[in-house]
Amino acid sequence: MQKKIKSILFATCLSITSMDVLALMCTDNPSQNVVLANNYILKVDDFIDTPAKGIKQETRTLQYNNGLMAKQIIDYDEKGLFTQSQYDLYLKNNQLDYTESLQKKDFGWQTIIENQSDKTHTIINFKVDAQGKIIESEQIKKSDDFVFSQNDSYQFDNNNCLVRKQITWKIEDVEAKHNNNVDSPKGDSTYTFTYENQHLRDVSYNSTGRTSRMDHYSYLFDHLQRLKEIKLNTLSADAKYGTVITEFSGLNDKNDWLHATVSLQNVNQLTTVRTITYY
């Protein structure tokens, strides 16, 4: 059982420190910043540096270089704010392995995750304030052997730009808890966001008992100021570097991208094909 706990702990640390290229912005419009921050937190706004711009629904087909394939269907309201999403991941034999369903609720949003590989069931509740900003989330992941819990809180500046994210988590061994053994793995971490020219520039990450990290973002635009590329450079405290590049192509007449390629250290990792329905 301890081996499984360590495996889940390792996966948790990976998820906390994964290098996702997300184009968060901090504009002069506080209402727009709420939309941008919420979509960023919910991880449905990957690769998009503006609100959904009249998009009613989009379908993304994602092909990983290891043979895995995923499909995601996302719905937005007229303001560009996410309302629901369905993400399904298939193994090489076309077997459904992972599903992630997000829906809007009275308190904010809720994510339900079913993972066949590690036989876990996860519920994440995202709570919003009176302005509609996500201010906290609560996650519970359960299996027959353990319970993983995580609480996140989000802080914003006076312009509703996301500036800080704080995380606390712990893993409880069900059998150990039954035997009154309360020595459960736990930890906390903090993200700090800074911006330049309205785009996310740096994300600094610090975690109790682990190395710190800095993510630096840079952007490339064409002559019409359309986003062509996002580059993420990561430096950890132990001087390990990583570079993730996301390139966009196939712009339509509304300047929305239809293809994206993500590469890690110049090795293709993921390609995305996007189809869009407009209001």
Number of DSSP strand runs = 16
Strand content: over 45%
Mean pLDDT: 85
Low-confidence stretches: 9-21
Order of helices and strands: HHEEEEEEEEEHEEEEEEE
Distance between the termini: 51 Å
Helix percentage range: 10-25%
By helix and strand content, what is the structural category? mainly beta
Please, how many helices? 3
Largest sheet: 16 strands, antiparallel, barrel
Categorize the overall geometry: globular
Task: Describe the 3D structure.
The protein is mainly β and 279 residues long. It has 3 helices and 16 strands. The protein has helices at 2-17, 30-41, 174-178, and strands at 55-64, 69-76, 82-90, 96-105, 108-115, 120-128, 134-142, 146-156, 162-173, 186-196, 199-207, 213-221, 227-236, 241-249, 259-264, 267-278. A 16-stranded antiparallel barrel has the order 1-2-3-4-5-6-7-8-9-10-11-12-13-14-15-16. The model is unreliable at 9-21 (pLDDT under 50).
Give the helix/strand layout.
Layout (H helix, E strand, L loop, with lengths): L1 H16 L12 H12 L13 E10 L4 E8 L5 E9 L5 E10 L2 E8 L4 E9 L5 E9 L3 E11 L5 E12 H5 L7 E11 L2 E9 L5 E9 L5 E10 L4 E9 L9 E6 L2 E12 L1
Antiparallel strand pairs: 1-2, 1-16, 2-3, 3-4, 4-5, 5-6, 6-7, 7-8, 8-9, 9-10, 10-11, 11-12, 12-13, 13-14, 14-15, 15-16
